Structures are given as C-alpha cells and as structure tokens.
Amino acid sequence: MKLNIAVLPGDGIGPEVTAQAVKVLKAIAMDFNHIFTFNHALVGACAIDKTGNALPDETIAICKNADAVLFGAIGRTSFDLDPNAKIRPEQGLLGIRKELGLHTNIRPVIAYDDLLTKSSLKVKQIKDVNILIYRELTGGIYFGDHTLSEDGNTATDTCTYNRFEIERIAHAAFKAAQSRKNKITLVDKANVLESSRLWRRIVQEIAPQYPNVKLRYMYIDNAAMELIINPRQFDVILTENMFGDILSEEASVIVGSIGLLASTSIGDKYAMFEPIHGAYTKAANKGIANPIASILSAAMLLDHFGLDEEASRVREGVDKSLKLHITTPDLNTKYDNISTTKVGDFIEDFINHPDETNLN
Amino acid sequence: MKLNIAVLPGDGIGPEVTAQAVKVLKAIAMDFNHIFTFNHALVGACAIDKTGNALPDETIAICKNADAVLFGAIGRTSFDLDPNAKIRPEQGLLGIRKELGLHTNIRPVIAYDDLLTKSSLKVKQIKDVNILIYRELTGGIYFGDHTLSEDGNTATDTCTYNRFEIERIAHAAFKAAQSRKNKITLVDKANVLESSRLWRRIVQEIAPQYPNVKLRYMYIDNAAMELIINPRQFDVILTENMFGDILSEEASVIVGSIGLLASTSIGDKYAMFEPIHGAYTKAANKGIANPIASILSAAMLLDHFGLDEEASRVREGVDKSLKLHITTPDLNTKYDNISTTKVGDFIEDFINHPDETNLN
Ligand SMILES: CC(C)[C@H](C(=O)O)[C@@H](O)C(=O)O
Ligand SMILES: CC(C)[C@H](C(=O)O)[C@@H](O)C(=O)O
C-alpha cells in the first residue's frame, strides 16, 4: 500500500515521540512492502515562532493532500501563563480538527496486565478494564463563540450542538459497541444543560436501531467518580467535546501513565492520529518522554487502512517493551536511563525481527 | 445562641440523611444550651408533586427568614430519563442557590485515616490528603441562557463570567489558603475558553495581594488526572461552577465514599449546608444511605456561626463512628445492618455523652 502521511510533530515532547512513531511506521513499511512517504509540517507554538500563525496554510495543504495525519502535541508554558495572548498554540490543534472535519475522536483505555501495579488505583479495580471513549471533536463549547466585552470584564463562551453532529458520532459509537460488549454510556449534564438534553433525546431516538446494545446515561460529575471506583462497568463511552477531554485524561490513571494513550480522529474525508497527552514543555529534549502513545497512534493509523497484521505487529512490539521494562521513567522502576529513542529502537527492532528481539 | 434553620430534605435519600443531621443539631442545642428551631420546606421532585413547582415561593420565604438552610438532595430517575421534562427537580436546587445568592461553595476533601483502605486508590496515594475546593456556584454555564431552536434540532448553553463574580470567590479562596498551606490551584480551560482566560487574568491580578500564597494554574483535563495520581499536591482548589461540580464528585474517591462529603454555600446574606451527593432514588427508604455527609454539613453550619466547640463535638462523633465501624454499608465490611438511623443515633449519643459512648 502507498500512504502519504503528513507529520505534525508540534511542540515540547511532540517531536521526540513522533520521531519514534515515524521510525516504527518506516520499519513496518519495509517489512510489509508498503510505500509510506512522510511530509513534515509546522503546527502550534513552533509554527507561531516561524510564521506568526499556529496553523499555517501550508500545513493545512500538506494535511489535505495526505492520506493520514500523524500529530504530536502542541502547547508551551509561556502561552499557558499569558491569558492575554491572542495567538495561541492550541489554535493549531483546534484549527486542524476543524479544517479536516475530524468530528469523531476515539480514545481506547486499556489496562495492560504488565502495568497493573503502576496505576494509582488498586489492581483489583482496574484489571481487565477496556473502555472506548467516543468524544465529539468539532462542536460544543470548543467551537462556539468566545467573546470578551469591550471593557474586558465579561467573558462568554457558547456551547452549541445540533442533531446532525450528535447523530453522526452516536451511530459510530453504537456500531463500535456492537463489536464489543454491547454497552454504551452517554455522559452528559442533562439535568442542567439544554445541549445535554438534546444529546440524550437524540441518542434515545437512535437506540432502537441497535436493539442489542444496552444504553445508559450518566451525569459527567458522577462519571468522573464512577470511572475510578468501577471502571469495568464501562464499554463504550459516548460524550461531547469538553466532557470527553476531561474523562479521557482522567482515564489515563487506569492505564498507569498518560504516556500510553493514543487516539484516532476521524472525519468524512480525513483522519488524524495523536497521543492524548500534551506537549509537556518541561520534559522536552531530555529523552524521558514516553513514545508509546505516539507509537500506538501509529498502530491506530495502520488499523484505519485495514493493515491489521501490521498494526498487530506494532502492538506486539509495545507489549514486549512493557513486559521487558524497556520503558521510559514514567513507567520504569527496573532500569534507569531508558530513553525515548531507546524505546522506539526496541520496538523498531522487534518489528524487523519479531521472533528474535529480547533483552540485550 | 438562637438559630432558625430552614430544612429542605428534598428527594430520594435526602429526607433520611437530613433527619440524622437535624437529630444531631438538636442534641447539640440541648447540650450547649442553644435554641435551634427547624422549619421544613419542600424542594425538588417532591415539591413538583405537591405544587407543580420545584421551588415553591413558600420555600424561598422560609429560607430567607432563616439564619441558615440545611439541604438534603434533589432528583428522581424518571426526570433523568426524560430529557423533555420542562419542570425539573434540579430547578429547585439551582433556584435556591440563585435566590439566596450562594456564590461560594466550599467542599472539603479529607482522607480519614480510618478509611484509607476503603478508597479505590492506593493508601500511599491518599494518606494526609486535605483539599478545600472553592467552587463558584451562581455563574457560568449553569446560569447562562439555555435555548433550543424552534425545530428542536439545535441546543445552546451559554457560559458567562464577569470580573466581580471571579474576584469575590477568588478573594475568599486566597484567604482560606492563608490559614492553610498557602497554596492555591486555579483550575480552568484557559487554552480554549475565553471565560477561563478571564479567570486566569483576574486571579493573576489579585494574587499580589496575598504574597505568601503560591498560585498555580491547571487545565481541567489535567486536574482530573492529577487529583488521582497526586492529590497531596493540592491545598485550595479554586474553580468555576461546572469544573467544580466534576472535580468535587471525582474527589470523593479519595475519601472512600461520596456519602462523606459535605459542603457550605455562602452568599452575602445567606448560607446553605448540603451533602455533595445526590438523591440516589434507588437507595431511598432502605436505611442504607450514609448520613455522614449530611451530619458533616450540620457541622459546617455550626462552624459558620462560630460554634467551634459544638462543631468539633459533631466531628468527634463522626470520627468515632468511623473508627468503631458504626457506618452504613458503603463503608462497612465489619458489621451488617447498620442503618442510616443507627449511625445518626450513635452520633447523637456521642454528643450527649462524649466520654461514655462505645460499642454497645
Ligand atoms: C490542547 C487542548 C486544546 C486539547 C483539547 O482540549 O482538546 C487536548 O487537551 C486534547 O485532549 O487533545
Ligand atoms: C444536582 C446538580 C444540579 C448539582 C450540580 O450540578 O451543581 C449537583 O451535582 C451538585 O454538585 O450539587
């Protein structure tokens, strides 16, 4: 298969981890006789530095010409501390989601047996957790009007959803549930928000089309608690943009490190693959960033094109690195000094020689 | 002291748990020679049943005539399942917050030594956690416009904050931090929301007035994770309405049961005290509801009027009940069948005879 992949490493640890994912994809291409080409483009704070714009037109063009986008992370502490900045790195990420129409964000949360003890949660709480979060990604309060009064003393954000946006992701989530445990939990705040009541109404309407899927509702505040005290109750979680942001980052505690969570963002025409973690400016260029979320995003990219065997090979490599403790310091207690690059190299090696790779 | 207390038990488990708090307050009044009078009023689904209105005028009047309000819980499953209901129990709670101008909601999150093993989190994660959440309670998306388009296909909620609202609670939170560990964390989503940027800007402006307090910022998604992986990093958390709702319910996992978390809501003229848990319709009338959150809300009521010794007596009673496992099933593994009323009776007994009460 020929794939043209746009690579947007972004800021902070983005470039380091994305480089490992690219390395892994190159190894896959080699071993399985695919032709993957990679076109790098700027996004986020580094794009602001060079062009004054968090999402340069050239980047959009490269993404639209590609078969898939591999995204790193954006953000920088100086912008976080400056609420007055008009141009912000996040505009790069939000902009590309909007430009490519990436309405459906899928975030798997899987408790790896080899990592159960790394979690802040008790092992018995998290064993066998396997959750798929469907987060709506191009609507809600993220993309409503954001206004500041002239005197600078009143700020307003608007959260809007329409039937079409909700139906689109709801159908996708129900279908996903059908190939899993047939359970879906809609998370909202329908006791307060009109938009949540619209979600609840529409999802209720759609549900009979998937008679084998059991639908439940949960308020976001309650879900934030239930996700910790009983995560095994969840199969597919369906939710709006902001609640999905919060729940998915929270869910990383189950897995043991946010450096492990990958995601797929799908639109009608385009698809993008990115770790759910941020740019962690402080950790950048130290070789300590966990590349696994980015590498697993690459595996999701392979899934997306039906390259099942290839994706499995990547995941086996990841599993093996976890089992052998070839992991960065966020996960390791066994060895010191296993760097971002070393983890990438190990998984690359595994892909090249799946039967030989071992601790060496 | 003479106190006129409005009692709004509400729905579900509200009446059962509130009855225990009233019992405890009566015992305190008796022992310390206060005169507490209690006026009960309707709110929530039970008020809808009887009057067609979740917050009848009479209830508002009773609250406004009182020195303090003791609130139970509102909500009912049938309303949760019906996104089309125009009259909803939550209007009672949100309405009373607005009517009484209860802008500052304070939710303590304290890991009890006797309960460390009850948490889903590992003991080493939560030992000594002591967080005070300052949640803005009468602004934000809760109280903005909620509109549905005429065709019913588009819903909008509006989140607005102004300088005054932010300054008011920010000063209160900084002052609280000064009598604690001098640390404050503002939780927001300033990388996306204009209202969050306003919060960040104003809190930044105010901070120099409290030079000994260390101010940090954290995005809500990150905070939802950090609250679990490293809760001891927090002292005072300051946040807007919706994020406070989510974080405080999530924080209950640290304490071991949501049945333990109490809150104070303060306005310029009025004050209300309520558990942070909901109505749990399913648990109602079974004698299994944990009354401790309600009883600790009564302790916060006593604090509010400077009745320190009285409040301490209540808390000692609670501590003793926890130590002796005189607790409802959510916490107990030692004894079966310790009911809501029994827990209330035990704490009442302790208040009457603090030196004698023991397992009997
Ligand atoms: C960086 C930020 C704008 C983004 C979001 O909130 O969507 C991130 O947290 C994520 O989850 O991808
Ligand atoms: C019942 C609901 C409207 C309420 C809220 O969201 O504020 C509750 O969850 C709370 O935290 O007091």
Automatic annotation (TrEMBL), chains A, B:
Keywords linked to the UniProt accession: Amino-acid biosynthesis, Branched-chain amino acid biosynthesis, Leucine biosynthesis, Magnesium, Metal-binding, NAD, Oxidoreductase
Domain Isopropylmalate dehydrogenase-like: 4-347
InterPro entries in the cross-refs: IsoPropMal-DH-like_dom (IPR024084), Isopropylmalate_DH (IPR004429)
Domain of life the protein comes from: Bacteria
EC numbers for this chain: 1.1.1.85
Annotated Pfam families: Iso_dh
Gene Ontology molecular function terms on file: 3-isopropylmalate dehydrogenase activity
Family in the record: Belongs to the isocitrate and isopropylmalate dehydrogenases family.
Name of protein: 3-isopropylmalate dehydrogenase
Taxonomic lineage: Bacteria, Pseudomonadati, Bacteroidota, Flavobacteriia, Flavobacteriales
